[in-house]
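Example record for the data management plan.
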Amino acid sequence: MAPSPKRVIFAGGSGFLGRFLVLDLSTRGYAPIVLSRDPSASVPGARVLPWDGRSVGPWLSELDGAAAEAASKQFVEL
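Corresponding structural encoding:
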């Protein structure tokens, strides 16, 4: 059986820079998960989960065992 792809969690992954990071990671075999305030957001190459930045939701269980968590805004501010 093939190993499951490594999950990478993005807060802000539906924005301009986040979309490029998600697409790049998905083509490298990762399974990006985008946390978005807009649950209807469509991000090619990723699964989108609702997130309001204040409360715990179904996204919390995705953090367990994830390869990485990132907020794309941090990459812009570097």
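Summary line stored alongside the record: Strands lie at 7-11, 31-36, 47-50, 68-71.
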